[in-house]
Amino acid sequence: MPNYRIQRLAERIKEELSDILQRELKDPRLGFVSITDVELTRDLQVAKVYVSVLGSEEEKETSLETLQRAKGFLRTEIGRRIQMRHVPDLLFKFDTSIEHGARVHELLLELERKGELTRDGEGTDEAAKEERADDE
């Protein structure tokens, strides 16, 4: 199966999972969960579902356990919505890229407040100032 078809199917699974979590899965243990990405294996047997959970570490763990317990229901719903012969096994994983990006953003803001970084992303040390003066 061509790679673009796998990517299209992964995107469709992501959309359907997001919709199911938002509208049909009514579990109070499930926190604020967002599906950030779905990666399918080439044989379509396994789908890695990357989730982002807003909350404490305990809430994140509880949400992941809840998703694991609801795996059968989620697979059934995906199979019903997307006409597939075999629905892939769902492996839920935390997506830490959003948290990592927020941390990098905080560090950049801190450097900017200290005066060590300007808005254009360059440092403000004397060597950088001299280098910019030489360029002009």
What's the quick description here?
This protein is an alpha+beta fold and 136 residues long.
Question: What does this protein look like?
Answer:
This protein is an alpha+beta fold and 136 residues long. The chain contains 5 helices and 3 strands. Strands 1-2-3 form a 3-stranded mixed sheet. Helix 1 packs across helix 3. The radius of gyration is 22 Å and the shape is globular. The relative contact order is 0.12.
Secondary structure topology:
Elements lengths: L2 H21 L8 E9 L5 E9 L2 H13 L1 H11 L7 E6 L2 H18 L11 H10 L1
Parallel strand pairs: 2-3
Antiparallel strand pairs: 1-2
Salient structural properties:
3-stranded mixed β-sheet, single chain, alpha+beta, 5 helices, 54% helix
Structural class: alpha+beta
Number of distinct beta strands: 3
- The helix tally amounts to 5
Percent strand equals: 15-25%
Distance between the termini: 55 Å
What's the shape?
globular
Instruction: Give helix and strand order, one letter per element, not per position.
Output: HEEHHEHH
The parts where pLDDT drops under 50 for at least 5 residues are none
Q: How large, in whole angstroms, is the Cα Rg?
A: 22 Å
How do the strands line up in the largest sheet? Answer: 1-2-3
State the helical fraction. 40-55%
Give the overall average pLDDT.
Answer: 83
Question: Which sheet architecture does the biggest sheet show?
Answer: 3 strands, mixed
